[in-house]
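hey can u check if this looks right to u? its 497 residues, i copy pasted from the old doc so theres a chance i mangled smth
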Amino acid sequence: MSAPNDKKIVINKRLKGMPREALEKLTQTELIDKVVQLEAYNFQLRNLLQKKLTEQDNLEEYSAVFGNEAKDGVTQVAKSSSKVQKQRKFDWSSAHKRHVLLKITYFGWDYQGFACQEDSNDTIESNLFRALSRTCLIDSRANSNYHRCGRTDKEVSAFCQVISIDLRSKHSPEFQLDPTALSTEIDYCGLLNRVLPKNIQCVAWMPLRSPVYSARFDCVSRSYRYYFPKGDLDIGAMSQACDLLERHADFRNFCKMDVHNGVTNYMRNLQSARVVACDENHTNSGYDMYYLEIQANAFLWHQIRCIMAVLLLVGQKKESPTVISELLDVESNPCKPQYSPAIGLPLNLFHCDFRDQTTRSVNQLGSGDANEEAMDTVSEETDNTNAPELLERDLTTWIYNEENLQKLIENTQCEWAQFSVKSTMIRNVLQELEALLEENFMPKEKVQSQVILLQDSVKPRQYQPLLERKRCESLENRIEHFVKKQRLIVKNETEKE
């Protein structure tokens, strides 16, 4: 059950600046809640501004905000950056720019997710923009025409994260697609990789013909892989459950609802889902590695992790594969059963597909996704039925550099060697422990607990089937709650925002 067709649920953007008349109508409890909220926001903003005190900031301006303690706290920063202050600033007035796609690979287990956060600089995006600014490839994020393909969570990795962005170019716009200009262009990947951490690297770049082509809105499908050990799982049952996932359906029971951020549509087109062995020569032991490969037009917040949590229950024979169909039937099951999503560490954004021609118009230039809360977003579709069939493609081809790829392989091999040594060492210890158990106690069954780590929840003494558990609030109740809180407002489709 979704919102009425003639209604549209949107975020109340005017909530943060309520007029005096509206404040006077609030109850004492509502006013106290608002004061607490504003104090928390003020504290967060103060910490954020203090982190921004760099050599380019005006010390007196911040002192007026924070008082004398800010001036004392920044003195050391200002002194240590005196050399940087003397560096000549890059002159952007005469610089050329070109619109490109960048393919980024990263291992996310040491980071707090991809997107920038107010309370942490330890994100993939923060490191990426520091590198872009340090290499003078962009003036600032605000004017870089930036979009990201996917917003991966904490610990999640990516082989094929793609961003669209305007970068500094050696050549004027009219010559940028000439073969000579492409071969003599700035080595974007090499330049970035020299200043990025070794577990965040740029793989390739692609010149674009349209200045509004978006890695977010022009992505037609995203493929993720979730890696897991076989353990005691029934792979056949999990494959049967995957077949039932492949449909265009409402996935509200397979995600973390993000209603307070205006997400009220949970329809997604899940194009394929399958369980694949990582090694064709697997030994059929609990230590064999598999991955769930899942492809869709877009994903909801924690959607894959919730799907994986249910698939693990199916693989452990605690649930039947048909539970997938029952959870997708939102008429019969409008409220999600309470269960924890699988952990994010094994998840990898593995591949993205893009349309040849953008559906966006020139007046959408610069409409960034800074406020995007969902992991990925459904593409904005427009009617292209009248477009000429022979219209030039906006996409070109990915440009790779042999030296950069060799260096990237070298770095990744070192990462592999480090974890393989640890894995082999642990595996040998396990072999010794298993031999001791067999020799001394001759157990009826082997210990097969490799997948417990993936299930981020307390193991109950007695398992309770999913459909018999307590339920979360329905979508309609959540919408009603946030409308009452004035976080969301309901509009007619004909109303302008």
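The chain has 13 helices and eleven strands.
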